[in-house]
């Protein structure tokens, strides 16, 4: 754009000057017109092009040393202010690159020389001196101002970016500390109580004489052991920076989703919940994090049925689609009165599960149906990332 402007304004003295111009003025004007395309290469060789522009500006004023009749031509020259502002802006923007080198003083020296020639201090007049300053010193100051402003804006943006990054790191550090605190509290409280439950169930199994009591105690002990495994897995995920990465030692849901779900459904059947597992589509391998999340969705759905609709007929449906898993846990109205803890739910389990599914790029929905039951559906990508 600057090159086009310089080429357009170069002939303006010829149009505005009333008297015929001498050949020296025409040569200078032609030189300015020829040099204008060099601005296209300004970014590739800024020092070289800047020096050429300043030198041509000086040449434009040299005739004033021998011929005062060219003063009007020199003052009508609009090419010089544009060239000087560009050169000054470049020098100020890159001044740190020229430290300790003659190049640091080359462009400022040329700009000062142009200003001296334009103001003609050896034959100073207020009119010519003021116009000369407007053509040289003022554009140079304007270029430096614009360069300073651009530099300040760039620094402010950089500082804002660094500040934002620092806030993100602070927030992540706070979240990590909170996760570690929660993990410690869960380990100290819940893990201790579940361990006691497992030990008591083992004692009951060893001392009971009734066969039904022995089986119930064994089921309770196995369930408690699995709860401890799940708790250890969740504590590990809390301590990890990436909560979506599965732990290698958790073999339960990673051993194969159909088998894991079949075992999960069988556990619900043993405590009196009529559950039907339906798997559709061609069973295909999915990523461990997808398999684990799908297991948790079904587990949460069955837990809610046990809690809020005991004895309700329940269907667990798993569909292997082309690039995703489609899950549904649907139950009818409760067949038995809800337990004492049915009213204590806060929805935190569903909220956490929904966030976990959304992290993987899926979606989860849960709502009551028209028949008095409840439906929870989820879609989870088979491959994440």
TrEMBL record:
CDD domains: HATPase_UhpB-NarQ-NarX-like
One GO cellular component, as annotated: membrane
Transmembrane regions listed in the UniProt entry: 20-40, 47-64, 70-93, 105-122
Source domain of life: Bacteria
Tagged with keyword Nucleotide-binding: yes
Keywords: ATP-binding, Kinase, Membrane, Nucleotide-binding, Phosphoprotein, Transferase, Transmembrane, Transmembrane helix, Two-component regulatory system
InterPro entries: HATPase_C_sf, HATPase_dom, Sensor_HK_TwoCompSys, Sig_transdc_His_kin_sub3_dim/P
Listed PANTHER family: NITRATE/NITRITE SENSOR PROTEIN NARX-RELATED (PTHR24421), NITRATE_NITRITE SENSOR PROTEIN NARQ (PTHR24421:SF10)
Record's protein name: histidine kinase
């Amino acid at each position: 754009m600057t090159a086009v402007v310089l080429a357009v304004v170069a002939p303006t003295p010829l149009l505005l000057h009333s008297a015929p111009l001498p050949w020296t003025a025409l040569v200078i004007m032609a030189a300015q017109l020829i040099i204008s395309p060099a601005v296209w290469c300004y970014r590739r060789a800024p020092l070289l092009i800047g020096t050429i522009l300043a030198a041509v500006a000086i040449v434009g004023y040299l005739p004033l040393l021998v011929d005062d009749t060219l003063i009007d031509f020199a003052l009508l020259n609009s090419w010089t202010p544009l060239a000087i502002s560009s050169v000054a802006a470049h020098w100020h923007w890159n001044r740190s690159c020229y430290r300790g080198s003659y190049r640091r003083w080359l462009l400022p020296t040329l700009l000062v020389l142009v200003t001296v020639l334009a103001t003609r201090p050896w034959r100073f007049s207020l009119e010519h001196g003021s116009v000369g300053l407007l053509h040289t010193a003022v554009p140079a100051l304007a270029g430096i101002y614009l360069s300073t402003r651009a530099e300040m804006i760039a620094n402010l943006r950089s500082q804002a970016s660094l500040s934002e990054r620092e806030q993100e790191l602070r927030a992540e550090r706070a979240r990590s500390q909170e996760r570690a605190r929660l993990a410690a509290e869960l380990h100290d409280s819940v893990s201790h109580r579940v361990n006691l439950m497992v030990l008591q169930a083992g004692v009951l199994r060893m001392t009971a004489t009734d066969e039904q009591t022995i089986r119930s105690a064994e089921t309770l002990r196995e369930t408690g052991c699995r709860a401890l495994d799940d708790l250890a897995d969740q504590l590990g995920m809390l301590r990890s920076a990436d909560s979506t990465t599965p732990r290698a030692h958790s073999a339960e849901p990673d051993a194969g989703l159909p088998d894991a779900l079949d075992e999960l459904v069988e556990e619900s059947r043993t405590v009196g919940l009529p559950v039907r597992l339906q798997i559709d589509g061609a069973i295909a391998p999915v990523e461990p994090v997808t398999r684990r999340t799908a297991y948790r969705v079904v587990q949460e759905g069955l837990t809610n049925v046990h809690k809020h609709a005991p004895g309700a007929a329940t269907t667990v449906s798993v569909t292997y689609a082309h690039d995703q898993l489609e899950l549904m846990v649907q139950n009818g109205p409760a067949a038995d009165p809800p337990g004492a803890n049915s009213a204590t739910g806060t929805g935190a389990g569903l909220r956490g599960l929904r966030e976990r599914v959304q992290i993987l790029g899926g979606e989860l929905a849960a709502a009551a149906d028209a028949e008095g039951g409840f439906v929870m559906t989820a879609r989870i990508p088979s491959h994440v990332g």
